[in-house]
Amino acid sequence: MNLNTLAWRNLWRHKRRTLITASSIAFGVLLAVTFTGAGDYFYTRMIDAGANMGMGHISIMAPDYNRAPSSKKRLQQANQHKLAVEQLDNVKSVASRVQGQAMFASARKSIGGVFFAIDPEQENSDNNLFIKAMVEGEMLSSASGSSIVLGIELAKRLKLKIGKKVVYTTTDNRGDIVSAIARISGLFETGSDEIDGSVAVLPLHKVQQVLGYQKDEVSVLAVILSDQRHSDQLRDKMQAMAEFSDTEVLNWQQTQPDLAGMIAVDKSANRIGQLLIALLVAAGILNTMLMSVLERRHEFGVMIAVGMSPKNLFLLVMFESFWLAVLGLIIGVIVTTPWFLYMSQTGLDLTSAYGDDFSFGGVLIDPIFKLRLFSESIIAILIGLFGLTLLSGAYPAWQAGRVVPVESLKTL
Amino acid sequence: MSHKLLVITLLASQLIFMTLGTAETDSSEQILRVKALLNEVDDLWRGNSSYAITSMQVKTEHYTRTMRMEGWSKGKEHTLFRIMEPLREKGTATLKSGNHIYTYLPKTDRTIKLTTGMMMGSWMGSHLTNDDLVKEARLEDDYEATISFEGERNGQDIIEFTLIPKLDAAVVWGKVTLTILAVSHTPVVEYYFDEDMLLTRTISFTDIKMLGGRERPSVLKVVPADKPDEYTQFIYEQLKFDLELKDRIFSLSNLKKR
Amino acid sequence: MRNRHRSIVTMLAMAFACAMMIVFSSLMEGFVAGSELNIVSMNTGDIQIHQPSYLDDPDIYQQIEQSLALVTAIRQAGFKASERMFAYGLMASDQSSSGVQLRGIDLQYETSVTDINQHIQRGTWLAKSDPHGVVIGKKLARLLDVSVGSELIFVGQTADGYMANDRFHVNGILKSVSSAIDNTGVIMSNLILQDLISLPDGAHEITIMRTDRSTDLALAVATIDDIVTDDLEILNWQQLMPVISQFLETAQIQTLIMLLFTYIAVASVVLNAMLMSVFERIHQFGIMKALGVRPWQLIRIIYTETFIQTLIASLLGLFIGTGITWYFEKNGLDLSSMSDGFSFSGLALDPIWYATLSIKSLFVPVVFLFVIAALAVLYPALKAAVIRPVDAIHYH
After folding, report:
1. In whole angstroms, how far apart are CA B115 and each of A126, A174, B101?
2. Structure confidence by residue, pLDDT tens digits, C167-182
3. What are the chain C neighbours of A273 within 8 Å (beta carbons)?
4. Which of B93-102, C131-140, C347-356 has maximum average pLDDT?
5. Chain B residues with CB inside 8 Å of A179's CB?
6. Looking at beta carbons, which residues of chain B come within 8 Å of A175?
7. Nearest to A27 among C3, C142, C265 (CB)
8. What is the average per-residue pLDDT within C137-152?
């Protein structure tokens, strides 16, 4: 008889045991999907939200701008660079931005803050958090003109409403102090008092003019990717390209080290949890297989006595593990799919637990617990658990291969 | 506002009126008259260069203080003033040269160039901010002026101008009104309004006496509308015009001299 | 113990599961206790006292009167407490300048309340011998483009309306602490600050830490409320940082869920092991029954066996689990290779994860093990008890 078929039959000689073990593998699938899926979803959301706060997944800047930002440092030939980036794969959008510190003044009060000067034609609610967070009035209508969009808290502190004017004062390209006027066209509310109380969005060309920048000089080109996972690879590629040799190309981990650190630590904590569960699943499988090998020593002894080679015995038990793994994974997939589908589409709304303003590593996100799996994560889970099962089966199988006919007959 | 105010106080200059002087290109008769009037007032204060000794009194909820300083100006580009009293601030000097503003701090023997971050700070503990200092020379073209009242008010024959900031002017106010005496064209009071036309600051000009060869108000008082019990007051002790001032007076190295 | 191999395998599996539960529970408990301690000891402390409107409008004139007497009284009541003073102004370097918050701390007591002095990234903490050396926030250092040793000029206003200015130098640059400190924090001795801005005695903030963290926070607040006679605002860290505290609560629930998952995994291992060890001997039990053993006697035998097995397993599990936990308690699980400190909701966390070994994290897993084992053998034991010997012998 074929070893394979024999293994399959052997499994069903102890239906209960097999099913219990298979379901612990299935449980492993469920947990791995939940843990990994929460991570894949959460980190992607975080990274995308962080990118939409101004720096993109990849930022192209003047050298040294990231270390010590100043309006003197500016990226030249931005339009040319922008075109070059847009040619690259996986690039979803590229936005030209001028940013810096400014003082915003009303007749009542002056408040320090930061501005992001944008071209509204390059930005939308998919790549700009502030556009997404608009609550009153309208976003800038063009890159020139004298409109300003303020965080709702900033407007409140300045005691200003939509349509009123704000004088902003900042430092120009030569380090001189410059002021300009703008009228409030809209207000945004991200939910973070820190952001809502200090950020203003201004029209790009107007700010370039105020700062003495040329039209193709910007602080940063914020590159948004279709998938954040390509950021390392694309950054490396861009760094190697001659077009970007006079610029600094950084990815989100470098421009937002807080966020990157947070994600790295959260990921490793998540991995530790997964490792513990994997160990437990492995212990379960090991236990089952070892038990089934031990109690079949007599049987194995007989098999060897009738001419089965120890190697084949080893293979027999490995096949059993194999089928156990397959069975477990199938049950796992059957059980996990509906859970995953529900969680990936509907998710758990944790707004009541966290409140609306939840920031993580300085980045705002909606407190919704959802799952999302990258295809490589699915493969990793399946291969991981499969490998785990086979690995756990290896020791019992080795034990089985060591059975000697005489000794095993003695245990009868 | 205070930009002008500072110029007036420290340097007995004339910014409000310069502002108005260039206000309109419209050739209607009324506008020409406004222009002429304001130019006249302007001329009253104008000089190629100036020197002044002023004392500043500040009263707030928490403290009352007095300070004396002297100041020099040449053209619109150069301004220097230096604190004479009290002793603990003696030698502290501010230089405005073109678009740059520097402050010399004798205690640390360092000169700091004013940057955006400093703008919100109160200037010498007064009701003026550094921001007020910086904007001063840039407001020439910022307002459009009209005469909003002419005749007798509170027993005085006055002319009241209403100044509306131009659309693109970097001015936070909604409106400014200036009242001058009809005969001498001496300023009496200036009101600053926000965009909702609520009063935010009052500057009054009083104690007319001989200064720099003419009768001028010698006391200038700034009262914030939200803290009516507080004020910053400037009192002129001396004022001279059209002196021979060398450019190096307005140099960084001179800033440090005591 | 008829079947040595089988019993050993079963016991090992259970011991392993038990050890895992202990390690995991301790790590989780360490996470919860650690993150709280981490958050409060970085800067906030357990409890803070201010003038009632200070937090809304941090005005230098809003001082706590007689703060020295108050802080002394609080210390005498068994708390760790320290005074702080704040002022605002401008800090200029050669390169640039930025608005800053000066944080005057009590050099003697601050470090008994918080461990901010251990969060220096470069340079050193404040020293009494070097009164003009200051410690500044990480992002501020970047903004001013300064490093350790660089000169800084402060310009601001004194409490009596004069110009405050002085020369300082950077003694140390902090790691991430909180977004406020990172962006604008300049830490110096409160005596220097007092002198710089001519501020009379009286702190703006008193920060308090419980000596024993296991005591009730609300009780501590009440004790302090009794000491404070003036109309001052006493807030605990949860009120001071509502978002963080909410997050921690949720994180605790999440760790509980994770722990639950682990327990379920453990249960499946134990269940499996026990089910097998009983079921596979069912024909042996059949023989025993045929020899006249009564059903309840059989149940008792099975349970006694299970009890002994579980006992040995739990002892072994305790031993291994405690060992591993002890290691993590001492050394922590260092996650810092992945980042040099990071912030959550604007607040930095320590990247080393310590386990906390407590009675609870030892006791619960053991009890759980016994309960699961007892439940696991219930079905096979009953089956063995009621089965007819003949069926049992042929049972598979």
Report:
1. 35, 12, 8
2. 999 999 988 777 788 8
3. 258, 261-262
4. C131-140
5. 134-135, 138, 170
6. 113, 115
7. C265
8. 88
Within-domain flag for B225: yes
pLDDT category of residue A404 using cuts at 50, 70 and 90? low
CA distance A280 to C322: 18
Domain of B86? 3-142+207-255
CA nearest neighbour of C18 among C261, C276, C306, C370: C370
Cα-based angle B119, B121, B122 (whole degrees, multiple of 5): 120
Interface check C151 vs A, CB under 8 A: no
End-to-end CA distance of chain C: 21
pTM confidence score: 0.75
CA distances (Å), A71 to each of A195, A211, A238, C170, in order? 21, 8, 24, 24
Task: Kindly report, residue by residue over A33-87, the tens digit of the pLDDT.
Answer: 888 888 788 788 878 888 888 788 898 888 888 877 778 888 888 888 888 888 8
Please give the Cα distance from A238 to A244 (Å, whole number).
7
Q: Do residues B3 and B136 touch, judged by C-beta distance below 8 A?
A: yes
| Beta-carbon count within 10 A of B33 CB | 11
Does residue B171 form part of some domain? no
- Alpha carbon distance A368, A351 (integer Å): 7
Which one, of A41, A36, A8, lies nearest residue A22 by Cα?
A: A8
Which of A13, A16, A261 is opposite residue C339, by nearest beta carbon? A261
Tokens representing A191 are 């939910």
Residues C91-135 have pLDDT tens digits of: 888 877 788 889 998 888 888 888 888 888 888 988 888 888 999
Q: Which two tokens stand for residue A155?
A: 């407007």
Could B134 and A180 be called an inter-chain contact, meaning their C-beta atoms sit closer than 8 Å?
Answer: no
Assess if residue B199 is contained within a domain: no
Strands B199-211 and B214-224: antiparallel
Could you give the count of Cα atoms lying within 13 Å of C28 in the half-sphere of its Cβ?
26
Does the beta-carbon distance from A20 to C333 stay under 8 Å? no
3-class DSSP assignment, residue C216: coil
User: Looking at this protein, which amino acid is placed at residue A138?
Assistant: E
Query: Which domain CATH number covers B128?
Result: 2.50.20.10
Facing A171 at nearest CB: one of B116, B192, B200:
B116
Whether residue B238 is contained in a domain is answered as yes
Question: What's the complex ipTM?
Answer: 0.74
Number of domains present in the structure of chain B: 1
